[in-house]
Amino acid sequence: MTRKINLGLIGLGLIGKVHLKNCLGLKTVNVQAVTDVSKKALKFAREMGVKQVFTDYNELLRQPTIDAVIISLPTYLHAPCAISAAENGKHVFLEKPLARNPKEGKEIVSAARRYGVKLMVGYPLRFFSEFEEAKEIMESGVLGDIQTAHAVNIGAGPFFHRAESMIPRPVPEWWLNKELTGGGVLLDLGSHMINLARWFFGEVKSVKAYLGHRFDLDLEDHAVCTLVFESGTVAIVNVGWFSQKATVGIELYGTVGHVQKYYRSPSRAITAIQLILGRTPRFFKPYLKEVSYFINCINEDGRPLLSGGDALKDLEIIAQVYKNQVRLE
Amino acid sequence: MTLLSLIGLVECKERQVDSIKKAIREALELIDYSFPEAENIVIKPNMCYYWDYSTGQTTDPIFVAALIELLREETSSNVKISMVESDASAMKCKYAFRYLGYERLARKYGVELINLSEAESEPTKVKVGNESFKFMIPKVIKDADLRVNLPKMKYMSFTKISCALKNIFGCNPYPKKFKYHSRLNEAIVALNKVMPFKLCVLDGIMASGSGTVKLGLVMASLDPVAMDTAAAEIMGVNPKSVGHIMLAEKEGLGETSFKVRGADLDYFKRGYPRKSITEKALLLGYRLACALGLDKRLI
To answer: Are B80 and B43 in contact (CB under 8 A)?
Structure first.
């Protein structure tokens, strides 16, 4: 029988707030507590009806009645927080990327195994209707064999806040620190697209990439990777932090047919109006689906498809790219 | 006829130092500008957040490079030039200087790049209308014998437009600039009073409005009020509805009446990507939501 899962949300940045709004509307979930270092974020949570708020995630993890946590923290905190959550017996939904590097990723995966908790990594693109449809079309056979593919995720990256709020907001400094992020756009958006491509085409045999630095950051702000899959498909992953306009999509070129599916992002004004009116913007829905899926996995004792082990493979591919990169000046 | 109200307009669509330098020179000749003897020049480009020149929202480093070459040709090859900007609520100079290409520019041309929020400054008091302000004035600006304002023209939610007068708001070293938002028009005018930048050269080659276009505009004036009035007209905004323009005129910083020399103002009016009625309505709705406190629901 389905029971209500007591949930704790750790981190209330942009995506953390999306999860909070979504979870408060889920009948299978009781949002018991949230934690964030920002008092403003905690005030936001209180106003949304959350009773327990903490500034230290360890306090939240010590709450015995919490069954599971959603971790939406800066990447350098993924490993310590997820491992601590596992040690405290909490199921873990962890925002992508799994960690800064495969070493940390492996530590998270083994902690989840050791303490017998479920670990799911947040890759919402798998829950976008456009990509679900593309996969269905591919699997129906009407495209023949997919010989080549193009996966694109271009946007503003850390400079994103402006688009949603209509006024510029400070970029959190950890975003601009290579040590704290573990990588640039390839880790941030590339992990999305590599994971999506692996969902479509299976495991990767080899990878080559070019990393670019338009803005002279320590981190790459654009990257183009060629992934060769064991299935024979060759996919180009094209990701960037350089554009005010966001584009996310996949193109499949098969021996019989072709299909292009792009996520049509609603305008910022429409998103703002929906939020002001208390409605759920379209942008939130895939995040709602992925958290609902995670809660179902807990209730039905299923293994999440987007497991830590799956996300670790993405990290290993990215680590290989960083090791053998060709840097464009 | 007075020099203060002249506006020089030149079309320049090539993003190359030599072409831009030629256009700036022409625009300055159109307003009868003579370079003074100078040993210490300050340039204030417009850096806003971390979007580079291609968006039309920040002054192009190549435009600044063209001006630096011109200044050295017309004053002295040894003249000391400083480019200045200050930290803001959402922008830190340590990142903006690098991401927007100003660190490279400074290295290439041997000019100083100064974060005013970290520079030596001294307090001053100023009154505009009934509002009193106390600002820290950076020594580098106070001591300069020529100050050049290199604004962009763009829409801005709080002040309707941003151009020459608003660019000087960025000379206030205090980083938490939202503190002034309740009396922004007065603060803009006050800063222009205590730090007058008479020479204004607008980089309108890439222009940001409702979207971005290559407008190819170089505009020069010795009057920031006249420049802002001309910019407002190009952008389809009634200058009389722009609080800081009218206040600046009242405070004697310049005149809203001006005479255009060079290219046709209407040509640039036609090319500028003006806001549609829908966009204006959405902005009005957003302002209304903010006034009612509903913007707290945004994430």
So the answer is: no
SS3 A190: helix
Domains of chain A: 5-123 (3.40.50.720), 125-265+308-328 (3.30.360.10)
Cα–Cα distances (Å) from B184 to A76, B3, B136, in that order, read: 39, 29, 17
Q: Which of A14, A162, A215 sits opposite B299 (nearest CB)?
A: A14
The amino acid that residue B141 corresponds to is: I
Q: Are the Cβ atoms of B101 and A170 closer than 8 angstroms?
A: no
* Cβ pair B296:A44 closer than 8 A: yes
User: How far is the C-alpha of B115 from the C-alpha of B135, rounded, in Å?
Assistant: 16
Widest Cα–Cα separation across chain B: 56
Q: Is A184 helix (H, G, I), strand (E, B) or coil?
A: coil
Distance between CA A314 and CA A238 in Å, rounded?
15
Q: What are all long-range contacts of A278-282, with beta carbons under 8 Å and residues at least 24 apart?
A: A278/B297, A280/A21, A280/A22, A280/A25
* Domains recognised in chain B with CATH numbers: 3-297 (3.40.50.11440)
pLDDT tens digits along A76-112:
999 999 999 999 999 999 999 999 999 999 999 999 9
Q: Do B99 and A215 touch (CB under 8 A)?
A: yes
A163 touches chain B (CB under 8 A): no
**Chain B interface test: which of A276, A280, A283, A329 (most B C-beta within 10 Å):** A276
The tens digit of pLDDT for each residue in B241-296 reads 999 999 999 999 999 999 999 999 999 999 999 988 887 887 777 777 777 777 76
B100 vs chain A: nearest CA distance in angstroms?
7
**Residue B293: how many other CB atoms lie within 10 Å:** 8
Which residues of chain A lie closer than 8 angstroms to B296, CB-CB?
44, 47
**What's the pLDDT tens digit per position in A127-150?**
999 999 999 999 999 999 999 999
Q: Does A216 touch chain B (CB under 8 A)?
A: yes
Cα–chain center distance at A143:
28
Residue in B49, B98, B297 closest to A162 by CB: B49
Pick A168's closest partner by Cβ from B91, B104, B282: B91
Q: In Å, how far is A315's CA from the nearest CA of chain B?
A: 27
Higher pLDDT, A16 or A244: A16
Q: How many CB atoms lie within 10 A of CB B109?
A: 15
Cβ-contact A87, A115 below 8 angstroms: yes
Q: Does A142 touch chain B (CB under 8 A)?
A: no
pTM of the model as a whole: 0.91
Confidence of residue A326 (pLDDT cuts 50, 70, 90): low
Query: Which chain B residues touch A170 with a CB distance below 8 Å?
Result: 89-92
Q: Compute the Cα dihedral for A161, A163, A165, A170 and give only its sign.
A: positive
